[in-house]
């Protein structure tokens, strides 16, 4: 399991793995929003939590394509499926590797980008917390989408159609935590809901992903 | 997979599962369909005409209230069709009856149309009543998300060549999607309290609309259910025949 994690991380960090792409995308979304809606500081600080959450979500989605497709092409997935490691565990590790290379950097850079969007002071802590709680769920759900569409040629667009509706609850609660935190409202309820969704998804989704992948490997 | 070489049905004609045999299914649906079409057409015409022309205008909403005879039944069907797809997907996963998977495939486009009808009639009704075509209200939003789920489901069916793989993957998507559809419903509720009115129909008689509206509405709902049944049987039959034709063509190409 450790070997698989190390391998996936190493592959993602080297050229062609697309490690920085998600971050660059996140930055670009953040830069484009003020250009689109106008630079009024007041307006920006009001929509900042939602925009940052959306940017993180899209950056996550963008990198899902590489999660399984490359391993599918060179046959690594067949080896993984026949190895003694259960496929559920292998997919959880792959989701973890995806989170470390995409979700974690997003969490760490979000405060910097939040300055650009004029996020109110108390919002920073809640933004980072909500992203830290929510992005693992995005990776795990995304793994399911990737497992569903891995056999489809040019499945990227199809995958976003399948995955985005599944992201709805995470997005709602995540952005709600950040938004309420920014205006100093009570955040406990949405934060607990968000944590609940993430934990539930981590517990159950690998089984669905593995089932989908087994069908595709058949 | 060739449906034409299916083993003969087990000698238990009383069992519900014997209709999982495509031959038996087709025979039965062909016998039932004409009646079903007639019943669906009659109850739709009766329900809609009764509702549109022979009910009084509502004292607050005027004649716009009459759109409920389209809005409420189509909204009910949009949800129920997804539930039906969930059940048939489960049957496919557990018992691997091809007819079941094909019924789910056949039902999805009908579900999309029902969702669109519900959204459009809702917008037409909402414009004069709420002064807006669209509001980010929990019910409306979750319907839009349901619409996206339908689209994804159909797109996944269309994207995969092998019919058994497609059936398996869409069944898994349907299961996961159902869980997330319920989750989204509650999430959306939490996110925004809206202005949609309460349920028009429920088992609790106190909450229902007045009797004058209630009976034509029931007839219209029955019409929608019958129409859906007829359509889904018809489309499933088409899917079975399409698959048969494919199997025959493949056999011809081999010889």
Automatic annotation (TrEMBL), chain A:
Topologically, how does it sit relative to the membrane?
A: Multi-pass membrane protein
Please list the coiled coil stretches: none
Biological-process GO terms, alphabetical? cytochrome c biosynthetic process; cytochrome complex assembly
**One GO CC term on file:** plasma membrane
GO-annotated molecular function? heme transmembrane transporter activity
Give its localization. Answer: Cell inner membrane
Q: Give the UniProt keywords, A-Z.
A: Cell inner membrane, Cell membrane, Cytochrome c-type biogenesis, Membrane, Transmembrane, Transmembrane helix, Transport
**UniProt KW Amino-acid biosynthesis keyword:** no
What residue ranges are annotated as transmembrane?
Answer: 12-37, 43-64, 96-117, 123-150, 157-178, 190-213
Task: Note the InterPro entries from the entry.
Answer: Cyt_c_biogenesis_CcmB, Cyt_c_CcmB_bac
Q: Which NCBIfam families match?
A: ccmB
| Similarity comment | Belongs to the CcmB/CycW/HelB family.
Question: According to its UniProt entry, what is the function of this protein?
Answer: Required for the export of heme to the periplasm for the biogenesis of c-type cytochromes.
What's the protein name? Heme exporter protein B
Q: Which species expresses this protein natively? A: Roseobacter denitrificans (strain ATCC 33942 / OCh 114)
From TrEMBL, chain B:
Which segments constitute the Cytochrome c assembly protein domain?
A: 16-196
User: Is Transmembrane helix tagged as a keyword?
Assistant: yes
Answer whether the UniProt record assigns the keyword Repeat to this protein.
Answer: no
* Keywords, comma-separated and alphabetical: Cell inner membrane, Cell membrane, Cytochrome c-type biogenesis, Lyase, Membrane, Transmembrane, Transmembrane helix, Transport
UniProt membrane topology term: Multi-pass membrane protein
Q: Which residues cross the membrane?
A: 32-54, 74-94, 106-125, 140-160, 172-192, 212-234
Q: Which GO terms describe its molecular function?
A: heme binding; heme transmembrane transporter activity; lyase activity
- Where this protein primarily resides, as one coarse class? membrane
Gene Ontology biological-process annotations: cytochrome complex assembly
Known InterPro entries for this protein? Cyt_c_assembly (IPR002541), Cyt_c_biogenesis_CcmC (IPR003557), Cyt_c_biogenesis_CcsA/CcmC (IPR045062)
Localization annotation: Cell inner membrane; Membrane
Kindly state one GO CC term assigned in the UniProt record.
plasma membrane
NCBIfam families registered for this protein in UniProt: ccmC
Query: Could you tell me what this protein does?
Result: Required for the export of heme to the periplasm for the biogenesis of c-type cytochromes.
Q: Which family does it belong to?
A: Belongs to the CcmC/CycZ/HelC family.
The name of this protein is Heme exporter protein C
- Organism source for this protein? Roseobacter denitrificans (strain ATCC 33942 / OCh 114) (Erythrobacter sp. (strain OCh 114))
